[in-house]
Amino acid sequence: MSNILDKLLNIDRHIIYLMIAIVVTAPILSPLGLPLPVSKSTTEVYEYLKNLPPGSVVLFHNGGSEGQWAYGAPDLVVIGRHILELPVKVIFVSFHYAGPTNTEKLLQLIGIGAKEYGVDYVNLGFIPGYPQPEPSLAAFGRDIHSICPVDYYGNPINDLPLMKNVKTSADIDVIIDLGGIATGEMFVKQWAGVPVIGIWAPSYTATMAAYYEEGSVVGILVGIRGTAEYEFLTKHPGQAIVMQDAISIYHVLFVALLMVGNVAFLLKKFRRSQ
């Protein structure tokens, strides 16, 4: 018995690394579809967008960097697919120079279905101002056409049917902010009265908690967990659910190892006291 306890208390760390690699890799290769309770804030995002009146104008701000595509693509995909399935108008824009490229990747990945460019959606590209975008974000809200006279492809936005009646922030019904440059708070302050939906990391979500509580922010997808929940709600399982499976199994292993170590330690201590 003592020999077994000694082995449990002195497991080679390489064995633990191998166990972690196995439990993380297995769900990726063969998704488990573990139960996933959906949080209140994720449900609020889904319900708010689903209940938008037809023809509502959604501003989708993609503030992600080049590197964010690697880990933030599930966010873009699940929310982008959902809004393009809805009978709303979508304006893609970014105050980060890499945003338009990520938007193009998104549209190529998910497809646009029956949506018509210039009528149902537009890509306005990059609005200069990075890394301090608040002044240009505020000016863009006051007069969209003067700040952004052409779209990402060089088309005059005056010629795009969607943009003919969208002149200022007052013509926007809701903002979806994929944060990467802390624009969520800027939208709340500079575009006062326009509801904001956040797709933010947990750290920035904490910063925006007060705005969520008072109602300026109407819903938040928090990190990869929020994205996985949204994939579940929209019935489009993707990378986030797979990653959440891997995270859950890793946590089970961690707790199991912790329990085994503590039980072995206590048993050994008890045997010595006898």
Write the layout of secondary structure elements.
Blueprint: H1 2-9, H2 13-29, H3 40-50, E1 57-62, H4 68-85, E2 89-94, H5 99-110, E3 121-126, H6 134-142, H7 144-147, E4 174-178, H8 184-190, E5 196-200, H9 202-207, H10 209-214, E6 217-222, H11 223-234, H12 239-273
Parallel strand pairs: 1-2, 1-4, 2-3, 4-5, 5-6
Helix pairs in contact: 1-12, 2-12, 3-11, 4-5, 4-11, 11-12
How does this model look, in words?
A six-stranded parallel beta sheet has the order 3-2-1-4-5-6, sandwiched between helices. The protein has twelve helices and six strands. Helix 2 (13-29) runs antiparallel to helix 12, helix 4 (68-85) packs parallel to helix 11 (223-234) and helix 11 crosses helix 12 (239-273). The chain is of the alpha/beta class and 274 residues long. The protein folds into two domains: 2-22 and 244-273; 40-236, Rossmann fold, CATH 3.40.50. Strand 4, helix 8 (184-190) and strand 5 form a beta-alpha-beta unit.
Total number of β-strand segments?
Answer: 6
Q: Tell me the fraction of residues in β-strands, as a range.
A: 5-15%
Using the coordinates shown, work out and report the CATH topology of the largest domain: Rossmann fold
Percent helix, as a range, is: 40-55%
N/C terminus separation:
14 Å
Cα radius of gyration in angstroms: 23 Å
Contiguous low-pLDDT stretches (5 residues minimum) are none
Summarize the structure.
The chain has 274 residues and is an alpha/beta fold. It has helices spanning 2-9, 13-29, 40-50, 68-85, 99-110, 134-142, 144-147, 184-190, 202-207, 209-214, 223-234, 239-273, and strands at 57-62, 89-94, 121-126, 174-178, 196-200, 217-222. α4 links the parallel β1 and β2.
